[in-house]
TrEMBL record, chains A, B:
Catalytic activity: D-sedoheptulose 7-phosphate + D-glyceraldehyde 3-phosphate = aldehydo-D-ribose 5-phosphate + D-xylulose 5-phosphate
Co-factor: note: Binds 1 Mg(2+) ion per subunit. Can also utilize other divalent metal cations, such as Ca(2+), Mn(2+) and Co(2+).
Full protein name: Transketolase
EC number, UniProt record: 2.2.1.1
Single Gene Ontology MF annotation: transketolase activity
Organism: Hyphobacterium marinum
Gene: tkt
InterPro entries in UniProt: THDP-binding, Transketo_C/PFOR_II, Transketolase-like_C_2, Transketolase-like_Pyr-bd, Transketolase_bac-like, Transketolase_BS, Transketolase_CS, Transketolase_fam
Similarity comment: Belongs to the transketolase family.
Assembly: Homodimer.
Domain Transketolase-like pyrimidine-binding: 358-529
Function: Catalyzes the transfer of a two-carbon ketol group from a ketose donor to an aldose acceptor, via a covalent intermediate with the cofactor thiamine pyrophosphate.
Chain segments annotated as transmembrane: none
Keywords: Calcium, Magnesium, Metal-binding, Thiamine pyrophosphate, Transferase
Domain of life of the native organism: Bacteria
Length: 665, 665
């Protein structure tokens, strides 16, 4: 697509003013907002101009063209760089007014780039390390879709601009080692090697040989002067033929052009100030008022933006003639196909008959056996706990560096990178990711889960070993506060199914949740089958429901997951003492809270005493049981012992639940 | 101390049976428990034996000898390795009965090694990557204490055994790059390079050139056959003269000795089984019944354990003659010195007069100006947000690779590594760490915060920019659920002070909290001074208190941090409408919940309607305001805009609070 000849001096003469337009917009927008980060856009303007004007495959007329290159500004604080690029190349969202409204309420130009808010932004960035790691997922999804649909439909690259901070973050290690292992050669990272961090020179905290580090991880590397546009051009061109992911170190000057702040941390995160801006205009010979871009420069950018039009037309023609068209479009659809819900419906009916007693992690594994064959875009993995999470379907082919046609990924012990990678896969499309680890290690994934929630990405987390029920591994591996901390996060749905039927139901609800992460909290230990219905209605869909109904109940016991069995036992004991109570199973408190008041009151009548049992912290439960409600659970960390000893030791027993109820009726 | 001559064949002949004793104990204890990880202890038994028998400086007679070497089993799942070592070297906690009780309730031999539970365990491990990162903090604290007290009192090493999984975790990148930057040459990591992870061969997920990776991070590296004890011995000896941290790759066979499971993931995380154990006994020529260690081998271990006795005696003599004795012992004491509390008391009196309006982050900075000079062991840092967190006191000297005598550390953008490092510093002793980043990035630190809570380590987290009040940086940087998720964690105290006085009080409480992490959630924005008392009593100590008292109040508004000012305004508005209400400031909900019922009821009378205001999620607040209580806060993610626009946009205003109250009186 691109002009593959190296840049000439003439070409640089055309490109330099295009880069200066980015610098001007960045410094003027930050100045107007009295807030923002001018240094990085000014430093990387040259390299970004070469990338966008000569290499990036995109067409502003269809920002969602599936075969476009993905551009990830991992250093999201430099958001004016991408806004300037989107504006100058004609993305409809980013008008000059929006640039003027940088960082204002409701503008398309928020402080950090937000996916879903501004068309053309491929992923939300800002929390460092996330962009580069999400990009690995995009590059992986590209190769997986390529393996399925061929070069004709899927043949694009993922380009990243990353900062020193991105590379200091631990998640970058997980991401680059995974990318190197999987030989994701369609991934190119431009490292803004400006030797400046917020605290000052990177020498204050960093001595790593970054090139060697990436080479150790299996990457190809090169180094350029980031202001030498011909050199950048040549490096980008060379990157396209690599058989490994590529790091291009771009030595730049932060705040390039600013007379006294260039090369200093003072240009990083604050407006330059009026005097400095005057000086910058002089230094760059930029003789235009704020937000004024000369027509000739606009024309050059417009011409660059047209590069993708023809290629997109050709691609569309190929798509329309492709035998894969229907499958391709179905894979790109965010909604899971009807086939998988049909398979699940049949499976639930079978469960109602078989009534198997299964650990919910095992039930999840069985549900995957049903779903994976019925949903080709479903792709999973685990952070080196495959046999514990039961995330791999028998015979599910692996994704490897030599064959991307599989649908199972051994992520290694890289929980955080895995979660970001899953975000990237979901953002890219064509695959619908689910990933597994122990629930306690949700903490390792948390920043990426949060970004997925913010971006409304449908990643399913299979978090097994969800309580002290995991037994001997002890308190380091026993989640206590994790359910609460995940329920507290906006736009996350937490599911904790009580038996094999609820597990199938919760998986169905997770697949139907197209607008955010779903968490499945699953037991290590075997759980008795609880349900007596025929499996035709998804009872978990309302979040909580009356599992065992008593005549004239005097109270309600509400439980989740593995503790539902304890609640049922407690209810039986109470019944024998003449105290009939209902048992409510609550696989998803978020879904229950979203029901109307009439339903909620029918399940948890306000005038009946309520006791909850969950082998976790009470934190958050008062909203359902009231301040005076009873709670049987954990008040501190767990301990190492066989499961039954632990439940007894921590007093999470049917007797304790019954006692709490008896104290209230 | 150690015999510095390389091992001879004769020596290996003595050491091999000592290592086999570890193997036998490991496989037999796991078998008895029917749970555990025999493979790693059996694989690393040889290297660990060389380390403990010849190099590690320790004396079982005083496990807390301050100048002992620290041994960190980062691969904590191999806990039987350290239990066997502690047992064989005569640590009182780990008797043979305790070994027999491996992984049983209340035993000293839980599934993963737990600091504080088993003497001789230097840090709790299990969550991968934490041990090696915590060890960096220990090695740093050693150098800092050495700089202060000299070689005579502080001159020891930190030895780590780390697994493939430890090195895959992102936190290991942060830790090793920091260690390399700071040239922590007293840190030696033995990498158990067994080429096996849980999912199978490490080839499934890993292609990194680990040696090159560590060299890129500024480490010295060497490689040995981990079963060649002379080679291990030589490598350990060589490591002692390095001017950089040292990685020793020990190529081992997981489950060494097991006839069919050695070298396979099947030996990793499950008992070997009776037949395999019989075969292992044959292969190792270990002709003893389970848990029986021949007297000769016991004697060899006992002799090895005696190596430290003389050296400790000499050290004690030096301590008793040292001019630093008093300061040294004071620095080692977990309790903060009286001097700092005296300084704080004077500062609080001054505040009561000055009544400054300050952002609580600025108030924290001013409090640090008071504390740092009064407490020499106080050492801080930030993850590259020094000027934003205001964690550095003017003229506070830096800790650098060439001079460890400072007390401020530029951690770089390494939040997770920083938190683990702080745990290690606290565990080591001699320094009392505080570390800073934005509150939203508490998520990056979370696994380490949790371990600190479990280990009861007094790390203070200075988490600034604690709400949408940070403004333009937008939702990626605006915590919403973080207060809830931290409050849900056992043994963590969360403080959110409302003004400069409460900030000083909360810092005082944080310093007094010797048994777990303290979180200071601090505002970016300026907060009006609220207090009218003379500053002599720490009102924050009870968690919540009546800040503004009304005659015959008809309701109570409860608020934290920056929203206390909104609560005060709402109360004024309500008063003008004839609805007198109390205003409660609640800087710590944990401390408040720990008060007796009479006090709690006096602050939040059960019969008065309650409205809470906090620019965060409601999750968890029902416990204080009741299900019917009013709440003004966030219901989803934030947005990018100037602060005032955001508070208005999200309806966190005095008007909204007043309305919630009016609807309830």
């Amino acid at each position: 697509m691109s002009n593959t000849a190296p840049s000439t001096d003439t070409e640089s003469a055309r490109l330099k003013p295009m880069a200066n337009a980015i610098r001007a917009l960045a410094m003027d927008a930050v100045e107007q907002a009295k807030s923002g980060h001018p240094g990085m856009p000014m430093g990387m303007a040259d390299a970004a101009t070469v990338l966008w004007a000569k290499h990036l495959k995109f067409d502003p007329a269809d920002p969602n063209w599936p075969d476009r290159d993905r551009f990830v500004l991992s250093a999201g604080h430099g958001s004016m760089l991408i806004y300037a690029l989107l504006h100058l190349t004609g993305f409809a969202d980013v008008t000059l007014d929006e640039i003027r409204n940088f960082r204002q309420l409701g503008s398309k130009t928020p402080g950090h780039p937000e996916f879903g808010h501004t068309t053309g932004v491929e992923t939300t960035t800002g929390p460092l390390g996330q962009g580069i790691s999400t990009a690995v997922g995009m590059a992986l999804a590209e190769r997986m879709a390529n393996a399925r649909f061929g070069d004709e439909l899927v043949d694009h690259r993922t380009w990243v601009i990353a900062s020193d901070g991105d590379l200091q973050e631990g998640i970058s290690h997980e991401a680059i080692s995974l990318a190197g292992h999987l030989k994701l050669n369609r991934l190119v990272v431009l490292w803004d090697d400006n030797e400046i961090s917020i605290d000052g020179s990177t020498e204050l905290s960093e001595s790593t040989d970054v090139m060697k580090r990436f080479e150790a991880a299996g990457w190809a590397t090169s180094r350029v002067n980031g202001h030498d546009m011909a050199a950048v051009d040549a490096a980008l061109e060379a990157a396209k033929t690599s058989d490994k992911p590529v790091l291009i170190a771009c030595r730049t000057t932060i705040g390039f052009g600013a007379p006294t702040k260039a090369g200093k941390s003072s240009s990083h995160g604050a407006p330059l100030g009026a005097d400095e801006i005057i000086g910058t205009r002089e230094a760059l010979a930029w003789d235009h008022v704020p937000f004024d871009i000369p027509a000739a420069i606009r024309a050059d950018w417009a011409a660059a933006a047209l590069r993708g039009e023809r290629e997109r037309g050709e691609w569309l023609a190929r798509l329309n003639q492709s035998e894969h068209k229907r499958d391709f479009e179905r894979a790109l659809s965010r909604s899971a196909p009807a086939s998988v819900f049909e398979a699940l419906a049949a499976y639930r009916k079978a469960l109602a008959t078989e009534k198997p007693n299964l650990a919910s992690r095992a039930a999840s594994g069985k549900t995957l056996e049903v779903m994976v064959p019925a949903m080709p875009s479903l792709a999973g993995g685990s952070a080196d706990l495959t046999g514990s999470n039961l995330t791999k379907v028998k015979e599910q082919p692996l994704v490897t560096a030599t064959d991307y046609s599989g649908s199972y990924i051994h992520f290694g012990v890289r929980e955080h990178g895995m979660a970001a990678c899953a975000n990237g896969m979901a953002l890219h499309g064509g695959v619908r990711p689910y990933v597994g680890t122990f629930l306690v290690f949700a903490d390792y994934c948390r920043p990426a889960i949060r970004l997925g929630a913010l971006m409304e990405q449908p990643v399913v987390y299979v978090f097994t070993h969800d309580s002290i029920g995991l037994g001997e591994d002890g308190p380091t591996h026993q989640p206590v506060e994790h359910l609460a901390s995940l329920r507290a996060m906006p736009n996350v749905k937490v599911f904790r199914p009580a038996d094999a039927m609820e597990t199938a139901e919760c998986w169905e609800l997770a697949l139907k949740n197209d607008t955010g992460p779903s968490i499945l909290a699953l037991s290590r230990q075997t759980l008795p089958f609880q349900r007596t219905d025929d499996g035709s209605e998804n009872l978990s869909a309302r979040g909580a429901y009356v599992l065992k109904s008593a005549d004239s109940p005097k109270g309600v016991i509400i439980a989740t997951g593995s503790e539902v069995a304890i609640a049922v036992k407690a209810a039986e004991a109470l019944a024998s003492k003449g105290v009939p109570v209902n048992v409510v199973s609550a696989p998803s408190l978020e879904l229950f809270a979203a029901q109307n008041k009439a339903y909620r009151d029918s399940v948890l009548p306000q005038d009946l005493p309520r006791v909850a049992v969950e082998a976790a912290a009470r934190y958050g439960w008062d909203a359902f049981i009231g301040v005076d409600g009873g709670f049987v659970g954990m008040t501190g960390f767990g301990a190492s012992a066989p499961i039954n000893d632990l439940y007894t030791h921590f007093g999470i027993t049917a007797d304790a639940v019954a006692e709490e109820m008896l104290a209230r009726v």
